[in-house]
UniProtKB/TrEMBL annotation, chain A:
GO terms for biological process: mitochondrial translation. Its main location: mitochondrion. Belongs to the mitochondrion-specific ribosomal protein mL43 family. It is found in: Mitochondrion. Keywords: Mitochondrion, Ribonucleoprotein, Ribosomal protein. Residues 15-90 form the Ribosomal protein/NADH dehydrogenase domain. InterPro entries: Ribosomal_mL43 (IPR039927), Ribosomal_mL43/mS25/NADH_DH (IPR007741), Thioredoxin-like_sf (IPR036249). It comes from the Eukaryota. Residues 103-132 are annotated as: Disordered. PANTHER family: 39S RIBOSOMAL PROTEIN L43 (PTHR21396), LARGE RIBOSOMAL SUBUNIT PROTEIN ML43 (PTHR21396:SF2). This is Large ribosomal subunit protein mL43. The gene is Mrpl43. GO terms for molecular function: structural constituent of ribosome.
From TrEMBL, chain B:
The gene is Mrpl20. This is Large ribosomal subunit protein bL20m. It comes from Mohoua ochrocephala. One of its GO terms (biological process) is translation. Transmembrane segments: none annotated. Keywords: Ribonucleoprotein, Ribosomal protein. The lineage of its organism: Eukaryota, Metazoa, Chordata, Craniata, Vertebrata. NCBIfam families: rplT_bact (TIGR01032). One of its GO terms (cellular component) is ribonucleoprotein complex.
Amino acid sequence: RYVRQLQRLQLLFSPTAADARGAREFVEEAAQDFARQHPDVVLYVSPHSGPGPAPMLRAEYLNGTVRDELIASKTSEEILQLATKLANQSGLDIIRIRKPFHTDNPSVQGQWHPLTNKPSILTVQGPRLQPQ
Amino acid sequence: MVVLSAARWVRSRLSDRFWRVQEVLKYARHFRGRKNRCYALAVRSVRRAFVRSTKARREKKRFLRALWITRIEAASLEHGLKYPAFVSNLLKSQVELNRKVLADLAIYEPKTFKSLAALAQRRRQEGFLAALGDGKEPEGIFSRIVHHH
């Protein structure tokens, strides 16, 4: 079954700053619908009064990664798109994947070492061989 | 009012020069010498590094294929077969494994590789018998594989 990797979304904005207008509109209009559509994500709306840092959308995932996105001077639709994008992501780092495959047990028959195809007399230590 | 801000814009000075410079320098941090610190030298080096990395993607395929061939050759020599004999006889027995898979088998699954080498050896012998023996003996088992194309 699908488990949504996004744990919580924190909407940090100021109720008076000019660049937080989109954030305020989002909170007024689309935040409730978003919260209803994504029932397993917790949405925190925390306005901080007075001049403060830029308006941010902080996403925390189940594996502990915290992703901050600036929402200064963004419209309400753009913030909604951003929120849905974060909700559909997992918390893995967004870097280049070196290989598209991975195994914990690469070898079933035992990895090759220089003595695999040599006669076993070189490796086996038995009772001292009698000279014949 | 566009008229006022055009005059202001013409007179404005750059305020985020630091971040524009850092965008380039972050790709030069592991370079040697002054090109990892000085922007003018770094711009040239970073551009050359990117060009080389795009061109190298074609070389990488050739390099890896050569590496796999070296490994398969070493592994098949351990079992008494040379690389051309091994690969051609595997193809004749309709075992269409590519060199990447063969190299991985040779490293991680040595017994499977040994059985593949034995198969190729047997097919080789049957090929010799079919070419030189001529007649009385029945055709080989592995030479009778039907090739559907």
